[in-house]
Design a protein that fits this description.
Structural class: mainly beta
Organism: Flavobacterium croceum DSM 17960
Shape: elongated
InterPro entries: ApaG_domain (IPR007474), ApaG_sf (IPR036767)
Number of helices: 0
Protein name: ApaG protein
Helix content: under 10%
Pfam families: DUF525
Strand content: over 45%
Distance between the termini: 20 Å
Number of strands: 9
CATH class: Mainly Beta
Length: 128
């Protein structure tokens, strides 16, 4: 598990390999990831948006921006956690993701970014 804390918000990531399949006459590698967002600060916060940079070993970069996570904009009181699962497709068996969440602190009304640490996506058969 990969974890990082930014301004009292802890992000933890678990990854998995889901298999391969053909799409548009090309082999794709499916990966899952589970992210837990834990509010270790003293203030209530809300996740409003996400930014992802998805890399594969063939030097392809995909940028994904959007509101919330999986259709939700979770509010986390001090001590609360929000866990969600999602996934991505790569055209190679090795890759990585990193990004950030745009959040707002309800006590100060200030917006801030929470870093999602870089995490590897690797098919088991690609490991040495």
């Amino acid at each position: 598990m990969i974890s990082q804390i930014t301004r009292g918000i802890k992000i933890s990531v678990l990854t998995g390999f889901e298999g391969t399949y053909f799409k548009n006459h090309r082999l794709h590698f499916a990966f899952s990831y589970e992210i837990t967002i834990e509010n270790q600060s003293k203030d209530s916060v809300q996740l409003n948006a996400r930014h992802w940079e998805i890399y594969d070993s063939l030097n392809h970069l995909e940028i994904v921006d959007g509101e919330g996570v999986i259709g939700k904009k979770p509010v986390l009181k001090p001590g609360e956690k929000h866990t969600y699962s999602s996934g991505c497709l790569l055209t190679s068996p090795i890759g990585a993701m990193k990004g950030f969440y745009d959040m707002i602190n309800f006590t100060t009304s200030k917006k801030f970014k929470v870093i999602v640490p870089s995490f590897k996506l690797m098919a088991p058969f690609a490991m040495n």
